[in-house]
Amino acid sequence: MYKLCFYVPESHLEAVKAAVFTAGGGRIGDYDQCCWQVAGQGQFRPLAGANPFLGKAGELETVDEYRVELVCEDDKLAAVIAALRAAHPYEEPAFDVLRTVTDFGA
């Protein structure tokens, strides 16, 4: 099992979550579309050659974004990340993937 965390502008929050859920992310037992989200502010500066969704090359940009976290089964991870990339408006979406521990030897 993995935990996926990604950042997305509010304008695309529901579309990206829907794509990730459709690909199999966010399932816990008899529940689906499970996630945790919180609003925040992202910052970036596009470099020369970038094609930013927001802002201009060489200028610092801040944007209201959401941090979204959800779990994902091993066999769904590649499809979930592909769905995230396809639905996300940024050319380089920020995300991380962590392996979770499910057996504590109890």
From TrEMBL:
Organism: Parahaliea maris
Designated name of the protein: NGG1p interacting factor NIF3
